[in-house]
Design brief:
Elements lengths: L5 H4 L7 H26 L5 H10 L4 H10 L3 H9 L8 H4 L7 H12 L13 H20 L5 H15 L2 H17 L4 H17 L16 H7 L7
């Protein structure tokens, strides 16, 4: 089996300083991601900073590249990746003016009520993987609305299973693994509902149309129920 760090240990053809610098950057990025993973394992305070560091550290990994190549088999996903479609920052106050059953209103009101801010990736869009990283973060809370998974720990992991079924997002599998280890060691009584959420998220993601391919922001007025029907998503009740 190829070791996880083998990509950093291969001889560099030509041994140019640029190639060496790229390898060094990727190596230290992976170290930061590993540190973030361990921080999440022992820190139960809901450390979103560690999640961000873990996610950023995975952008240029072989796993992410493989995931994106597999995603592009679906024409609609390949099209949006090639287009690099990104919507302007979501204006929550403007979205609250839409009808109450609309995606725009539901999304904005849920963020307002929870006190959450819209997500934004801290990486420049200069590749397919960096585009996907930015787009999934921009639309993460929309996926919560469409799937019905709440923002509790178990709800979040259920959504990560949905991600994993849809496009093998490396962060998703890492967060699921982290949750399984943490719950098994520190909250074993919660293991059964966690596994149920993972199973449900995986099943939903397998049958749903690719959510990453949607331009949600161009149809904020569309009712959530209509989006769910069109995406073939039976949301968590």
């Amino acid at each position: 089996m190829q070791s996880m760090n083998s990509e950093y240990l291969q001889p560099v053809k030509g041994n140019t300083s640029g190639q060496m610098w790229a390898i060094a950057k990727n190596f230290f990025r992976m170290l930061k991601a590993t540190k973030a993973f361990l921080t999440l394992l022992i820190d139960d305070s809901g450390n979103l900073g560690a999640v961000g560091k873990l996610s950023t550290g995975l952008v240029n990994t072989h796993a992410f590249h493989v995931a994106v190549e597999a995603m592009k088999v679906k024409p609609e996903v390949a099209e949006i990746i090639a287009e690099r479609y990104m919507a302007p920052p979501h204006d929550l106050e403007a979205l609250l003016q839409y009808p109450k059953d609309s995606l725009g209103y539901t999304y904005a009101s849920s963020l307002k009520q929870s006190g959450f801010q819209t997500l934004a990736a801290e990486v420049e869009i200069d590749s397919d993987t960096s585009y996907v990283e930015n787009r999934w973060q921009q639309t993460h809370d929309i996926w919560h609305i469409i799937t019905g998974f709440d923002t509790s720990e178990i709800g979040e992991i259920g959504l990560q299973a949905f991600y994993l079924a849809q496009f093998q997002l490396p962060l998703a599998s890492m967060l699921i693994a982290n949750a399984l280890i943490s719950i098994t060691l520190f909250q074993p009584e919660v293991l059964s509902p966690l596994l149920g959420a993972i199973a449900k998220g995986w099943q939903m993601g397998q049958t749903a149309k690719p959510l990453i391919a949607q331009k949600w922001e161009e149809a904020w007025e569309k009712p959530v129920a209509v989006w769910q029907l069109e995406m073939n998503v039976q949301p968590i009740s």
